[in-house]
Fold AraC family transcriptional regulator.
Amino acid sequence: MSVAGHANYLQNLSSRASEHSTFAFSDGQFDVARRGYTDLVEGSILSTSHLVMGTLEGGAARHRYVTDCGYRYDGIDAPGSVSVLPANSQRRLRLEAVSWRWAGIAISPGRFRDLTDGAKIRAFSTRDDRFLAALLSELAWHQDQDGHLDPAYLDGMLMALAQHLKIRYGPGNRPAAQRRLKLPPWMLRRIADYIEAQLPGEIRVATLARLIDLSDGHFHRAFRASTGRTPLQFINELRVQRAVQMLARHPTNIAELAFSVGFSSPTHFARVFRRVVGCLPSEYRSH
């Protein structure tokens, strides 16, 4: 596939990255880019190749997108966040309070089929896949050091990447019982709306379960199967997301900020903030 088949997938964004380097190879392209703080980025991504993209540094207070194949995401973006967009599937996105360094690799559908014996790829996002995050980070390091990627090294990484996607995320890789546990979108929306409205106060998992008429245990399992996070992790991420938005708008006392988004102590807030965003609130503010 020609380089032109990959090159334009980022052109439909409202603003461009301040730094961007590209290494093109016969069946794809690897990109590394950095964006300084930007209040809002909107637009779409569309490629004739499968795209695997990850946040290396920084992130966004809120990253919302929907793909043509029906996948939706709405949450914080932080170091280690990884997403996959299948070829010829458009992603319409909105980023709020974004400052990051990211990497992405495009693989032609033909090469992916050859590497996986015809496996299909689906859209998803995750913050729990250390392998994908580390692979993108390692490729970015080599490109930064050498200005290019060694073909033999790249071939090995592509093989590992394709097999990982096939085994971990391919169709049928989850037990039927786990698939049945998933909550429908309207239930997830009701839960998210309630949490956002109650962020400054106490939020009990039992209350969330009652909103959709489930037992506490069933709700906990179904919520995790649907989102990849426990209810508490989800609540804390929304609280941190709100805190990042407030920090981006104006200087705020860290203790006051912690209490305003529902944390019981500044110390706990700082610990959760660092786990989600990758730095302390004071460090984020200094950026």
